[in-house]
């Protein structure tokens, strides 16, 4: 991949489940080192979109490239440079936190150290805790650590701070800021407006499986003639994100 090519390129993606159309027509371009936010109510198609980009679902139509790789055809190569954290983590409940981290580290040639990963997500004190004994927020933070184990060049995060207390949420924001400083490309699905405004260079608003708007947070506010990103979202979609998310 040359430096002029985007880190993520999704063109005209579509996906249906039987008679339900989850994604109708989504195109996204995320440049190298950019943090792109994805906003949408439940059922808007945002999670299906990022799952297709991650190679977890095959699109019915459209083209995807991540660092020049096809997520389905080049799955093994992409796994070495892409980190993915989704809302539902399916991890072995009987393993300890440190065992899960070390397992994931074994998948990569030059992973981050176990201590660094646990410190990044504030789980050092829980290193000997069995996964099923973790709180919901701790499980979320562990899934983020696992996504970062291989020093990925692109990271996909779905509802990064859902279920986290304010202190843990800000710690995660600091972690994303560190990734940005290292030139990592981040695709962030979120319904937390403060999070999006703080972290994202640009934001895609998705509704009914389509991209309604794509701009900087300030650009979306100006385009909608609104006073806040929350108000801009309502103006653009006619829906309240806080109620639906």
How large is the share of residues in beta strands? 15-25%
The overall strand count is 9
Q: Provide the succession of SSEs.
A: EEEHEHEHHHEHEHEEHHH
Q: Over all CA atoms, what is the radius of gyration?
A: 18 Å
What distance lies between the first and last C-alpha atoms, to the nearest angstrom?
36 Å
Taking the sheet with the most strands, its summary is: 6 strands, mixed
Mean pLDDT over the residues: 91
Secondary-structure content class: alpha/beta
Order of strands, widest sheet? 5-6-7-3-8-9
Name the shape in a single word: globular
Residues in helix, %? 25-40%
Q: List unreliable stretches of 5+ residues.
A: none
Structure description:
With 245 residues, the protein is α/β, with parallel strands linked by helices. The protein has a domain at 86-151. The protein is built from ten helices and nine strands. The chain has helices spanning 46-53, 75-79, 97-105, 114-120, 136-148, 166-181, 193-199, 217-224, 229-237, 241-244, and strands at 8-17, 20-30, 35-39, 61-66, 82-85, 154-158, 185-189, 202-207, 210-215. The chain has a six-stranded mixed beta sheet, with helices on both faces. It has a three-stranded antiparallel beta sheet with strand order 2-1-4, with helices on one face. Helix 8 crosses helix 9 (229-237). GO terms for molecular function: ATP binding; ATP hydrolysis activity. Its main location: membrane. Pfam families: ABC_tran (PF00005).
């Amino acid at each position: 991949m040359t430096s002029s090519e985007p880190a993520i390129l999704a063109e005209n993606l579509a996906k249906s489940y039987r008679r339900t159309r989850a994604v109708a027509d989504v195109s996204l371009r995320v440049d190298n080192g950019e943090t792109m936010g994805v906003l949408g109510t439940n059922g808007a198609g945002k999670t299906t979109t990022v799952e297709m980009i991650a190679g977890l679902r095959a699109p019915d139509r459209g083209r995807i490239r991540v660092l020049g790789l096809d997520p389905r055809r080049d799955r093994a190569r992409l796994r070495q440079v892409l980190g993915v954290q989704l809302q539902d983590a399916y991890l072995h409940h009987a393993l300890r936190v440190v065992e899960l981290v070390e397992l994931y580290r074994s998948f990569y040639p030059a992973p981050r150290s176990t201590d660094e990963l646990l410190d990044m997500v504030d789980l050092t004190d829980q290193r000997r805790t069995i996964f099923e004994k973790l709180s919901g927020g701790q499980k979320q933070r562990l899934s983020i650590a696992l996504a970062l184990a291989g020093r990925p060049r692109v990271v996909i995060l779905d509802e990064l701070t859902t279920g986290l207390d304010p202190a843990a949420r800000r710690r995660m924001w600091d972690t994303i800021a560190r990734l940005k400083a290292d030139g990592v490309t981040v695709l962030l699905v979120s319904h937390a407006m403060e999070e999006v405004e703080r972290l994202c260079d640009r934001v895609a608003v998705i509704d009914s499986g389509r991209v309604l708007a794509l701009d900087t947070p300030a650009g979306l506010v100006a385009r909608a003639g609104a006073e806040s990103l929350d108000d801009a979202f309502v103006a653009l979609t006619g829906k309240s994100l806080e109620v639906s998310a």
